[in-house]
Write a structure and sequence with these properties.
Strands 3-2-1-4-5-6-11 form a seven-stranded parallel β-sheet, sandwiched between helices. It has a two-stranded parallel sheet with strand order 7-10. Strands 8-13 form a two-stranded parallel sheet. The chain is 41% helix and 17% strand. The chain has helices at 12-23, 39-44, 58-67, 82-87, 89-112, 148-167, 198-204, 234-250, 269-280, 304-309, 319-337; strands at 3-7, 27-32, 49-52, 70-75, 120-125, 171-176, 178-180, 213-216, 228-229, 231-233, 256-261, 267-268, 286-289. The structure holds uridine-5'-diphosphate-4-deoxy-4-fluoro-alpha-D-galactose (UFG).
Length: 338
């Protein structure tokens, strides 16, 4: 059984990937500092090895490397609030850059004394593209981030590329578009605190008790004036990690690769509201607000590189299904909290 260290495995995409790893017969070892990840998620994942700690803690990373024979790493652990990253960049550079480099340095140092370099799958983001000049976005679209969060992700992509060239470290960076939905069996799902993402907020806004959803601008150059995004089911994202991991584990050659993970289909904020209303049979209480700084009008990607090279196939391509899973999870989460 191969041991996979999953940083940030108690978080949203991380926890779904841990489940996919278990299903595929890998042994996940989670390290999470629980700043944004949840302990209850670890419990739901069943019998998994969990280490509460920080990837910036070199001593701890070294202990993990010597205690477990780590075959590969999937690195999710990061802060991911775009707005906050611009107000408090220190927090983002410290965690997403400094701590990530610490982890990667430890991989290289440890691997020097082994017969192979431990490969790494890295969670990058569509935020590295900034405001693209052409749509759909491909992996060769210029990366010009417009916020600190995007910069931190791009820096780590570059670190991985330089370390690959110099030390032979293999890596795959996945540039996610909008992760959405929840596990199809309702076990785990999205639980951010604070929540800032459109789909959970639109679902919450079906409740009369909740504050209305603010649509961040309806004067964009799109079909209905609201921003368009490319939503991907979180289980499909998780499965892409398994394929990336298998590629790294099965190759004798050094790999430094980048893949967009997207559906190639754009939905506007209004499309999402309409789908939430259809799925829940409830009205979304919304108002038109101001534009949010740094929001590109349209982010839609071409993910054919992942489809062709990794043979990645998305299972949940219908936006109503993605929203249905998010809704079922949301109801479960509410009943847990009340
Ligand atoms: N939106 C609203 N009202 C809200 C929340 C969101 O109108 O209350 C709109 C946004 O303006 C955007 C769309 O809904 O057009 C989706 O917004 P999200 O906040 O759900 O997602 P983003 O596209 O802003 O963010 C996603 C990822 C980030 C990543 C970013 C890159 O969640 O991690 O894409 O641009 F960095």
């Amino acid at each position: 059984m191969q041991n996979i260290l999953v940083t940030g495995g108690a978080g949203y995409i991380g926890s779904h990937t841990v489940r996919a790893l278990l299903k595929e017969g890998f042994k996940p070892i989670i390290i999470d500092n629980l700043v944004y990840g949840h302990k209850y998620v670890i419990k739901k994942l069943g019998n998994v090895e969990f280490i509460e700690g920080d990837i910036g803690d070199s001593k701890l990373i070294r202990q993990i490397f010597s205690r477990f024979s780590i075959d590969a790493i999937i690195h999710f652990a990061a802060y991911a609030y775009v707005g906050e990253s611009c107000i408090d960049p220190i927090k983002y550079y410290k965690n997403n850059v400094f701590s990530s480099i610490n982890l990667i340095n430890e991989i290289v140092n440890f691997s020097k004394n082994q017969d192979r370099m431990i490969p790494i799958v890295f969670s990058s983001s569509c935020a590295t593209y900034g405001i693209p000049k052409t749509i759909p976005i491909t992996e060769s679209t210029p990366q010009l981030p417009i916020n600190a969060y995007g910069n931190t992700k791009l820096i780590i992509e570059k670190v991985l590329s330089d370390y690959g060239k110099a030390y032979g470290l293999s890596s795959i960076s996945f540039r996610y578009f909008n992760a959405a939905g929840a596990s199809s069996d309702g076990l785990i799902g999205e639980d951010h605190n604070p929540e800032t993402h459109l789909i959970p907020l639109a679902i919450m806004a079906t409740s009369k008790k909740s504050t209305p959803l603010s649509i961040y601008g309806n004067d964009y150059p799109t079909k209905d004036g609201t921003c368009i995004r490319d939503y991907v089911h979180v289980e499909d994202l998780a499965n892409a990690h398994i394929l990336g991991l298998k590629k790294l584990l099965s190759s004798d050659e050094k790999i430094i690769e980048y893949y967009n993970l997207a559906m190639g289909k754009g939905y506007s904020v209004m499309d999402i509201i309409n789908s939430v209303e259809k799925v829940t049979n409830l009205k979304v209480n919304y108002k038109i607000g101001n534009r949010r700084i740094g929001d590109p009008s349209m982010l839609v990607a071409n993910a054919s590189k992942a489809f062709v090279e990794l043979k990645w196939k998305a299972k949940h391509t219908n936006i109503d299904t993605i929203i249905k899973h998010a809704y079922l999870w949301h109801k479960k989460l509410l009943s847990k909290k009340t």
